[in-house]
C-alpha cells in the first residue's frame, strides 16, 4: 500500500457515492417493518430478521475485509461489493415472499460490509498523515448523514407508497455507482498476491462475532433466560477467544490483533467502543420515549433526530480540519464533556418535556459526538504502519458493531428491569392503573440514560490520555517488525 502524492479526488468521490448508498440502507427499513409485517403476513420476531440478519452479515464479513483489501485491488472489491448490493436491492424490491426479501437483504449486506473498510483504507493510502483528518471528516459526514436520513425518508414513503419503493429508489444510485466503478475507478492500493486466507480463522471469526451480535441483539425481545440468547453469546465468546489466540500464532493472521501493542490505537479503540455504547442509548431509547410515552408519530420521531444528524454531518469536515491542526485531544475532551452533560439531561426527562426541548438536547449531543468519533479513530489509525491499515479499520468497524449490540441490549435490559420495579411500587401505592405504565417506562428510560452518562464519563476520562502519534505512519513502518510475512513493494 502506498500513499499518493496528490489525492485522487475523482476516484474517492466514486467510493463515497457507493459508501453513502450502502450505509443509507442500514436504517432504511426500521420504520417500514410494520408495513412489511402486514403485507407479507409475518410476526414481529420474524420481520426483525431484516435488521438482525443485515447486522449479522456485516459482523461476519467486516473482520474478513482486512484479507480482501490486502489480497485484491480496491477496484475489484468495489465492483464486487456494488454488484452484490445492487443484486440484493433488486431481489428485495421484487420479493414475493418474506424469505426472498430476507435473502435479498442479506445479499445487500454482504456488499455493504466491504464498503466502509474499503473507503477508509483508500483514504489512509491516498492522503498524508497531516491531511487525513479532513478526508476522514468527509467520510464521517457520509457515515452519519446517510443512516440519519433513512428513517425520515422511509417514514414519508411508507405513508404514501409501498415499502418496495424504498428499494427501487436506491437501486438506480447503486447501479450508477457500479457503472462509474467499472469504467472510471483505478487501483490505489498495493496487493500481496501471496497472502493466503486462514479458513479456520474465518470460521472462528464468523461464529465468534456472529454469536455475540445475535445473542445481544435478541436479548431485548427474547429475554436473557432464553437459551438462544445466552447460548449463542457463550459460543461466540469462546470462539472469539480461540480466534484471538490463533491470530497470535499465525504468520498471516486474518486480523492482526498485535496492533493493540500500539498504545494510541488501543486507547482510541476503547474510547470508540465506549462512545458507541453511550451513543446507542439515544438511538434506541429516544424512539421509545417519543413514540410510546409522548405519542409522537414515527415520521415526527424521525424528524426530531434529523437536525442532530445534519449538525453532526456538517461538523464532520470541520472537526476533520481542526484535527489536522490541533490534534484529537483538543477536540475529544470538550466533545465528550458535551456528551456527558446532554446524556445526563436525557436522564431527567418528564411527561411534560416538550418536542423542541428533546430536539435541542439531542442536536447538541450529536454536536459533541461529532467532535470525538472520527478524530479519535483517525488518531489511532495514524499510529499504525501502512500495511496494518486494513487490520485497524476492520477491527474498529467490527468492534463498533459489537459495542452497539451490547450497549443496546444492556440499556434495554436496564430500562425494562427498572420499569418493572417502578411499576410494582406504583401499583402497591395505589396509583391509577392507566398512569402506571407510562410513569414506569419513563423511570426506566431515565435510569438507562443515567447509567449511559457514566459510560460516556469513562470515555471522557480516557480522552485525557490521548497523545499525537510520535511518528508518521511511514516512519513507524520502517521501525516496527511484524511476525507476519513482510509485504514487498
Automatic annotation (TrEMBL):
Domain Major facilitator superfamily (MFS) profile, which positions? 11-471
The record's annotation in InterPro entries points to:
EmrB-like (IPR004638), MFS (IPR011701), MFS_dom (IPR020846), MFS_trans_sf (IPR036259)
Q: How does it sit in the membrane?
A: Multi-pass membrane protein
Superkingdom of this protein's organism: Bacteria
**Main localization, broad class:** membrane
Record's CDD domains?
MFS_LmrB_MDR_like (cd17503)
Subcellular locations according to the entry: Cell membrane
- Report keywords, A-Z: Cell membrane, Membrane, Transmembrane, Transmembrane helix, Transport
Q: What PANTHER family does the record point to?
A: MAJOR FACILITATOR SUPERFAMILY MULTIDRUG TRANSPORTER MFSC (PTHR42718)
As for family, the record states: Belongs to the major facilitator superfamily. EmrB family.
Protein's name in the database: MDR family MFS transporter
Species assigned in the record: Planococcus shixiaomingii
